Amino acid sequence: MTPDTALDGDALTLGFGRQVVVDGISVSLRPHLVTALIGPNGSGKSTLLRSLARLHRPRSGTITLTGTDGAAPRPIDSFHARDFAREVTLFSQSRPAPQGLTVREVVAFGRHPYRRRFAGLDDEDRAAIAHALDVTGLVASAERAASELSGGEVQRVWIAACLAQDTGIVLLDEPTNHLDLRYQVEILDLVRDLAHGHGAAVGIVLHDLDHAALVADELLLLSNGTVHAAGAPLDVLTSEHLSEVYGIRVDVDVDPRTGRLRIDPVGRHTGPPRSPDSTREDHQ
Ligand SMILES: Nc1ncnc2c1ncn2[C@@H]1O[C@H](COP(=O)(O)OP(=O)(O)OP(=O)(O)O)[C@@H](O)[C@H]1O
């Protein structure tokens, strides 16, 4: 992993047809930091992330990449596809498992940007693939047909392929969705390790605000294609901001035991908190 690469989107406006879905947003992904995009359905998170991965062309604004070549930041469009793929990877949802390939072969896709035409895997490729299989809990499944796996397992295979790509910029669109409890925690730990341990610049879309509070150094709270609040989790994940953006009452406090933020979306039918005594009475 090469540290000190960075990706900067400046005043980005993005849309589909006549609809503007991201309206003048700036976002900076810096090495050693996890930047999370949060916000309601349709607020523009995935479109923004895809634009950073060159999969959605901005109507206006610029996206520049500071690459591993040590050169000054330059527009992402000026990178050759293979060079860009050595700098930036994107995990996104809803990719089916390819038919007829083992898990290891799918993860090996991540090494494509490094391979010469018709050349096989070299030791570095094999080491990157082995590491990616290991940290995503797929070693025992490596020779299984990818098409036989469950939805959550397939998701881990694609996350592993991104990790095998070994880029300084890592973009993840809801990587914990569909995963069981263990792998939600493991993927979040992995995301933190990538940034804090390996110096990657991580951009991640998350719906789960507890996950965002756990993993993010910086947060962008989007609402209707604009930034409602940005900064450290304690400043962004406030009752006021979340209630405004999600349109329901959301209580936030800090757990005195762990020091973690506790985010409590209060639905219309939520009753008063129960004390252990009242629970006992219920059963009498
Ligand atoms: N391919 C597309 N064609 C037309 N409109 C699209 C397309 N993809 C997204 N949109 C629209 O762009 C807006 C933003 O979508 P986007 O997926 O970026 O939001 P999001 O914040 O990631 O939402 P979610 O939390 O539901 O995943 C939505 O109104 C959506 O309908």
TrEMBL record:
Can you tell which superkingdom this protein's organism belongs to? Bacteria
Q: GO cellular component terms?
A: plasma membrane
Which Gene3D superfamilies does its entry note? Answer: P-loop containing nucleotide triphosphate hydrolases
Compartments it resides in: Cell membrane
Under the heading CDD domains, the entry gives:
ABC_Iron-Siderophores_B12_Hemin (cd03214)
- Keywords of the record: ATP-binding, Cell membrane, Ion transport, Iron, Iron transport, Membrane, Nucleotide-binding, Transport
Kindly indicate whether the keyword Metal-binding belongs to this entry.
no
Please provide the Gene Ontology terms (biological process) for this protein: iron ion transport
Q: What is its main location?
A: membrane
User: Residue ranges of the ABC transporter domain?
Assistant: 7-249
Q: Name one Pfam family in it.
A: ABC_tran
Q: What is this protein called?
A: ABC transporter ATP-binding protein
Q: Which organism is it from?
A: Pseudoclavibacter chungangensis
Source organism phylogeny: Bacteria, Bacillati, Actinomycetota, Actinomycetes, Micrococcales
